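Pasting as-is:
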Amino acid sequence: MSLQVSGARYLSMFPLLHKAVSSPLFSHERGKNLLDGGAPFYTVYQCKDGQWMSVGCLEPQFFQCFLSLFQKEVQDNSGTKEGSWKPTAGCQTDRALWPDLRRYLEDGFKAYGREHWEKVFHGLSR
């Protein structure tokens, strides 16, 4: 039992420890950091059906794969305007582009229900 409590205590202290040692993981205010929902590639999004999809692709190769599958799905969506901003793999490390990336992903996830997105990311769609 004490191992469970000890482990849970460690997990809950992780952000505080990184903040205390000025880690780049938690150097910004709450909600603007890499692992606290601030990064648009490590958070949750609401789908068209009101259900939620979790995105957690920290590594560049996973982000690139995610983005490729995601863009393939949303390019057919009539809500996507010609000439509108489209993310590239490089936007993952550019914090100035995070608000644009977040809007892009929010709009895209709202185009379809969660079941559709599950199939996309399990390789079962089209």
